[in-house]
Amino acid sequence: MIGRLHHVVIVGGGFGGLCACRSLKKAPVRITLIDRRNHHLFQPLLYQVATGGLSPANIAAPLRSLVGSQANTSVRLAEVVGFDLDAQRVFLRRGSPITYDTLIVASGSDQSYFGHSQWAEVAPGLKSIEDATRIRRRVLLAFEMAEQATDPQTIRRLTTFVVVGAGPTGVELAGALAEISRRTLAGQFHNIDPAKARVLLVEGSDRVLPTFTEPLTEKAQRSLERLGVEVLTGWMVRLLEPGRVEIVQQGDADEETRQVITAENIFWAAGVAASPLGGDLAKGSNCGIDRGGRVVVGPDCSLRGRPNVFAIGDLANWGHDLDRPLPGLAPVAMQQGRYVAKVIRRRFQGKSTPEFRYFDRGNMATIGRRMAVGELGRFRFWGFPAWLAWLFVHLMYLAEFENRVLVLVQWGWNYFTRNRSARLITAEPADYSTESEGPDWDALEAKWKR
Known about the structure:
- By secondary structure, the chain is α/β, with parallel strands linked by helices.
- It contains 13 helices and 25 strands.
């Protein structure tokens, strides 16, 4: 009997896909949820995994446990590689194609290096648990190797951290790195002083957190500087190589100022690009695609000429009656997921659905312990109240109650002890010798891979 039901295929178990799936729990449909990973990930807290504040399991939950109670849902661990919209089929890297009656694509986004894909090896981004543990490994290993080094230049290079991009992720990562070096690791090394580590935040625009109002960005920058972060706004990355980054600043008379920063640890938080699946959707429909690879969708989040195909979240360019398209934020994806589920349910009832409307609950970003900024409509808040609000909002967005309790306890412990208990270098033992030339990160990465 279930095989005769309307088949809804959802690609992606992120915020948008998961919300759409859960909202169809009681609908007269059968659902196949496809994701190349077996877990739902709370990406806004990845930086805390990368800096040892939380463990990966605190911010992720198995998809099967999240939708296990839905009798109409099955989970498929697979990677989607394309679509045939005419034949209504989804192609997988391994396995037979899956046919659908309605398709919801919520495949998210990847890190964008603005045409310089080779920079990915030098400056890892922060989009997955693997990215977070890789960054954590590099940060902690840098201090360990600096402790063994004798050459001052090598120590300086090892304890210099550059974060490219001053959006929420970059600001939060830079602030956490500064707290680690100046507070968490204080007194734990004998040959180096972690507090002397340099943390630089490089941003191409003229201020940090450029999507926030100017008064809040000024407060955020002052808070970062109090933590010891060197904020470089108006600087663009021209070249990234192992151990060094070259940045330039445009002057008033079209004169460039050039600066080279020597650092073994460079992290990328400067931009994102939609999943490559957006291009495949655009080819099979009459919809456009923007420079970031996002599919231009209709007012109901469907593709032009394909009313049974929806794109939501980071993959969708939804800008109807707006000055600019909706941003790639978790609340946008969640609201679109619930909306598309409503559209599907109402279609079974022969009813139309008003076009999607996004309710903006505001923006928030944390800078460090007791420091955050937030805005809700015309209301602006910062400091300790904003930090408490940030904690509450992020706890409520975590997918499972068990994770909320674990994270709350961990945050409480970190707050009172200033300790980060998840400071683990998860790698095979290796020869971490340090010579004057500094570590060979490529060789170490080869040893890290199990």
